[in-house]
Specification:
By secondary structure, this protein is mainly α. Helices cover 61% and strands 7% of the residues. It has a single domain, classed as Multidrug-efflux Transporter Regulator, Chain: A, Domain 2 (Orthogonal Bundle), CATH 1.10.1660.10. A 3-stranded antiparallel β-sheet has the order 1-3-2. It is flat. The N and C termini lie far apart (53 Å).
Length: 107
């Protein structure tokens, strides 16, 4: 496998930081300042390129989009972050419960 092929395969990885800040802002329909504020707050911490430029993964873009929706509904950063965290915890607990029910017969 060539280096180029390896790089292309990494694009399928949700955590691969392939998107620049400008691209991320355009995809999300936000200003770059919004993404910088998420970084400054420690909510979305993008990777940095060799030149120090922010690079976002698909997972980080999805999180930023969820936060933006909550901001648009009037939530503060703290409230939006807490809501997203609780939603993720609930989703994970539901998946674990579903898996555990496979091994325990229902009465």
């Amino acid at each position: 496998m060539t280096a180029e092929e390896a790089g292309i395969e990494r694009l399928d990885d949700e955590d691969y930081p392939a998107v620049t800040m400008g691209q991320a802002a355009a995809l999300l329909g936000v200003q770059p300042a919004f993404l910088r504020s998420l970084d400054a707050a420690g909510v979305v911490a993008p990777e940095r390129s060799g030149g120090g430029h922010r690079r976002y993964s698909r997972r980080q873009l999805a999180l930023a989009a969820r936060l933006r929706q909550l901001f648009d509904q009037g939530m503060t950063l703290e409230a939006a972050t807490r809501i997203v965290t609780l939603q993720d915890e609930l989703s994970q607990a539901s998946r674990l419960l579903d898996r555990s029910e496979q091994f325990v017969p229902r009465p």
